Amino acid sequence: MKVDLALGEQRFSVDVRVPDEQINVAQAKYTPARQTWEEVIEEGLRRPIGAAPLRSHSLAGKKVAVIVDDWGRPTPAHRVLPAVLREVHAAGARVEDVTILTGTGVHLPMNQEDMIRKVGREQFDRYSCLPHDAFDEANMTYIGLSPRGTPLWINRRVAEADFKVVVGRIAPHNTHGYEGGAKMITPATSHWLSVLRNHSCNFSPYCEYGSYGQNPSRADVDDIGGMVNLEYIVNFVVNRFGEPLRAFCGHRILAHRAGIAYGDREVWGAEIGEKADVTIATLGANLARGAHAPSPLEQAAIGTRARWEDPSRDPGTLIFVGPPAGPEAVPSGWEREKASWAFDQIFVEHERRDQQRTPREVSDRCKSIRGEYYARRPGYLCDVVFAINRPSETVIKKNNARFEADIQRAVDEALDRQGNDARVLILREAANTLPMPQFHSFPELEGLTPEGDVPAQPGGMAVAAG
């Protein structure tokens, strides 16, 4: 079968010499936006999932915390907060009892100018608006241990709130499977040690884009959402250009799951059945990386049979065509040190706690080490071959990969190694397509009414994922 591929203006084709039925060409749907942010949020608030409408809660005399994502996420909070706050006040909350916080996690807290840009001048002037600071020890409250052993300290304003609403997006995430939901509690408004403990789970092979049911990082934050009684989520799914498609409001688990199910089918997912023995991937003619900015190399690796899944066989082969490397910056001493580590040393270094460093220095160091792991992960999962456009030597080395200028030769060699019965996956838009053996199934969503007429879920437990 002749397969045509593209990378921007480049066009090329390869002959994949296996029966057509062994070849799977996978590409996510493109769903155009048909509503504005204001229209999407109004519709979502009218149709809550697994919870009563926000305005029907009794909030008179109660403290309310409204948490929005920070500068690291693209949600235009200034456009959606007015509708959320109208519902909060319709439920009886007073202006002086409402606090708006940015879920900064371990990022640098937002300054006043950034806060105004994020939440809007009107909201900033009217409400108490605060950036979360994960390193502000005096402003933390200890909640307890999560079922997975994460010691949980959260922002005092969040802990003391009688009612909590989180506002953000749902999109594939490279460690927690998906953004959104209770991830706005941990890491977004938690102490740096709580964040670090949760992020130590990130090395699990189940911590990757699109992983939900067995993902320990995601399960931990969902449990934490129950521990702190996260009452209401307002989450959005956007298309590849960051345009709003739907809002998913209501129960912290059920509304979040509904957003995942929708996004899998309508935005980012492609169902592939069994993982491939050989994957051929490129960015496609449209080089826009998508609103959720995934790693195309990592997404392609997810569709390829991993080394750990069947140790008795050679791992799958990923042939990746990316853009040519630009000038490579001179690496810092720290970057050279990380690059010198054996793969297993990454885990040892991540768990070091040098008390001569400040808390932020420890946190930043661990984040950088996890970045080293993510950069090497595709080459750990499968055999990586970069074709046509040579990437930097650093990228090749990190993935224990090789470069082959002739993509046809790379494909032929991979098929010789994998055999005539090899399953082949073609990803023409690896940046916008998340290959999934199958879409997530959430039977508990069946029969939900727009008014949220479902049995109550236990407050301190996460519902088992499908």
Sum up the structure in keywords:
alpha/beta; 466 residues; single chain; 2-enoyl-CoA Hydratase, Chain A, domain 1; 6-stranded mixed β-sheet; 20 strands
How do the strands and helices of this protein lay out in sequence?
Blueprint: E1 2-7, E2 10-15, E3 23-26, H1 37-46, E4 64-69, H2 77-90, E5 98-103, H3 112-119, H4 121-126, E6 128-131, E7 140-145, E8 151-155, H5 156-160, E9 163-169, E10 172-173, E11 177-178, H6 192-199, H7 216-227, E12 232-238, E13 244-250, H8 254-268, E14 269-271, E15 278-282, H9 296-302, E16 317-321, H10 333-340, H11 345-350, H12 359-381, E17 383-387, H13 393-398, E18 402-404, H14 407-418, E19 424-427, E20 434-436
Parallel strand pairs: 3-19, 4-5, 4-9, 5-6, 9-12, 14-20, 15-16, 15-19, 16-17, 17-18
Antiparallel strand pairs: 1-2, 7-8, 10-11, 12-13
Helix pairs in contact: 1-2, 2-3, 9-12
